[in-house]
Write a structure and sequence with these properties.
With 355 residues, the chain is mainly beta. Helix content is 6%, strand content 51%. The strands form 5 sheets. Strands 1, 19, 20, 21, 22 and 23 form a 6-stranded antiparallel β-sheet that branches. Strands 6-11-12-13-14 form a 5-stranded mixed β-sheet, with no helix packed on it. Strands 2-3-4-5 form a 4-stranded antiparallel β-sheet, with no helix packed on it. The protein is globular, with a radius of gyration of 20 Å. The N and C termini lie close together (5 Å).
Length: 355
């Protein structure tokens, strides 16, 4: 089944793991939002909901990260705080600077009129720890010769616990930042050949640990993490050959032993290749969900996505680039899905195609 969206509809309803947008409509929140505010993340603790908002002022060159806490049952607001406020400097393009992989949501937003988007350099990202007790907020600072990620950790009462500035080194592309229950900060990078670099930074000790996976003959994109424990992280991704989906991959990183303990790669079956080749829907496949079950089974859900616009070709390997943010009339499509399930040994359990 092919689903088509206008840009405006999609940006209010798109939900991607680690993405910038939440699925709820703005009108579902029991508080008003200004035209220059957007809800970017919703944290739920039973009836206590916390909405995180970005407020941006391009004339004053000011960005703010705010939070509004309310009781979902009574719709009564219980707290409202400004978590961060920063003056936005001018974007610096340096040839030896680290980069940021463009998300599908940002690729969509890059074509919206300026008054309907959160400008790239004003954006924040927000997520929570697996136990939902700690909140991570971060933004990319493009205004310095080196690319920096400005991070903030908050407790469940929205009290700031720490803030850390972390660099993205030359030759690396950042895909995501996330945390574990111990409040370690993880940076997920790749290099230009799609080699994987997973860095753990411990704010209490300021120690950093790097684990990496070498590049291969395949291209890799759509990286998603799954935190199994404070020390064990899985990273999943799709692989491509000549812009066509060739397989899926997941990797086990163990920071207690300091080793990459497992790399599982599964090439598409002949039957699945035939089904994909028969599809008339344009687009590229993205990993949209990745889960490790209590039985240590691995579930990877893929979906075909595309953006069509005159003079624009969607590229899942593109990086954030201010020069590419210009209004265009676009058609956003989401097509068929399929789900892979692997057992604890890496053996394929099922391969389900949903056209």
């Amino acid at each position: 089944m092919l689903i088509k969206f206008s840009i405006k509809f999609l940006l209010l309803n798109l939900l991607l793991p680690g993405s910038y947008w939440v699925s709820a409509q703005q009108s579902s929140y029991p508080f008003p939002t200004a035209t220059n505010e957007q809800v970017i993340f919703l944290k739920k603790d039973n009836d206590t909901h916390t909405a995180f908002l970005v407020q941006y002022d391009t004339k004053a060159k000011l960005a703010k990260l705010k939070a509004v806490q309310y009781n979902q049952a009574t719709k009564k607001q219980t707290a409202a705080v400004t978590i961060d406020s920063v003056k936005i400097g001018n974007w610096q393009n340096n040839a030896d600077k680290g980069l940021v992989r463009q998300s599908f949501a940002n690729a969509v937003m890059s074509g919206k009129p300026q008054n309907e988007q959160i400008p790239l350099e004003y954006q924040y990202q927000v997520s929570s720890s697996p136990d939902n007790k700690t909140v991570l907020g971060y933004r990319y600072d493009y205004s310095q010769p080196t690319l920096y990620i400005q991070t903030i950790l908050l407790d469940s009462n929205l009290q700031k616990q720490t803030s850390v500035q972390l660099p993205v080194d030359e030759g690396l592309i950042n895909h995501q930042v996330f945390i574990n229950n111990r409040k370690d900060i993880f940076l997920l990078h790749t290099d230009n050949q799609d080699g994987i670099y997973l860095i753990r930074y411990e704010p209490d000790t300021e120690n950093s640990t790097l684990l990496e996976v070498a590049a291969s003959s395949s291209n890799r994109h759509s990286f998603l993490p799954y935190v199994v424990s404070n020390d064990i992280i899985y990273i999943a991704n799709v692989t491509e050959q000549k812009d066509n989906l060739s397989g899926v991959m997941y990797t086990r990183f163990n920071f207690a032993t300091g080793r990459v303990e497992e790399v599982q790669y599964y090439a598409l079956s002949k039957d699945m290749q035939d089904k994909l080749n028969a599809s008339s829907i344009k687009g590229r496949y993205h990993l949209v969900n990745f889960t490790v079950t209590p039985q240590n089974h691995f579930l990877l859900e893929l979906q075909k996505k595309n953006i069509e616009a005159t003079g624009y070709v969607y590229n899942p390997y593109a990086v954030n680039d201010l020069l590419q943010w210009r209004p265009r009339k676009s058609l956003v499509t989401e097509g068929e899905k399929f789900l892979f399930e692997f057992d604890s040994t890496g053996k394929l359990v099922s391969e389900k195609f949903n056209p």
